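The freezer alarm interrupted the setup, so I double-checked each line after restarting. Inputs confirmed:
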Amino acid sequence: MLPRDEIPPGTLYMMILKTLARGGEMHGFEIANSIQRLSEDVLRVEEGSLYPALQRMLVKGWVTAKWGTTGDNRRARYYRLTPAGRKQLEIELSQFERVIGAIQRVIEAT
Amino acid sequence: MLPRDEIPPGTLYMMILKTLARGGEMHGFEIANSIQRLSEDVLRVEEGSLYPALQRMLVKGWVTAKWGTTGDNRRARYYRLTPAGRKQLEIELSQFERVIGAIQRVIEAT
DNA sequence: TATGTTTACATAGTCTAACTATGTATGGAG
DNA sequence: CTCCATACATAGTTAGACTATGTAAACATA
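Predicted 3D structure, all chains:
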């Protein structure tokens, strides 16, 4: 499964939303690092996946962004969940469970 | 998650392989119906997804196909798992568990 | 006998989204 | 001063699931 892409299409939104729900205001690199660390290095969020995804999420109104500075004085774009984003997270979580559960029924059938 | 496609890209191969591993020789419609039924109607395998996937799997050497007739006298193409397909199934199953486990660690983190 | 439904396969074209590759810019370490 | 890590961004590629459409035959039923 997924030989080319490690991250199943669609699930990146869910993980970013969840990360922001947990961590409050975060910038892109922080989000990517958090996902990578929590997944125990199974999931590597490439920059070419991360930033386009964040742009799309801005357009969809799931997050807002503002420029700021990091602890070590670098410019970074800080993202924050909107109420729509929080709602979307709930949708995605339940969809994920529903679909993964269905797949597991198929692959675990005897 | 996955608003447009119900079946996460990549997982269809795995489910087809598993279905053939369980059912022996089957034709396309049987495979699709089996997946749909076992998933309790959560996953609907569209014909436009199924047949192209089976073609790709033929090219990859995961399955062989031969024409035959169904119980009610219709022509149908019967698919059978090759040793390479069986190996691929094992790969996909372990990849799936690995990736889904990683995603769950991310979305279940507190 | 004609019509519609179901089974069964196939392909063309669309679309999402994750990827690679590349580019910009800055801070800190050596 | 150079190198590396951080941080963001975009162009172009690719896989694969989808919709829409077409073929054809078996069967039910009016």
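Quick read of the result. Chain B touches chain A at residues 1-3, 5-11, 13-15, 18-19, 22, 35, 38-40, 42-43, 91-93, 95-96, 98-103, 105-107, 109-110 (CB under 8 Å).
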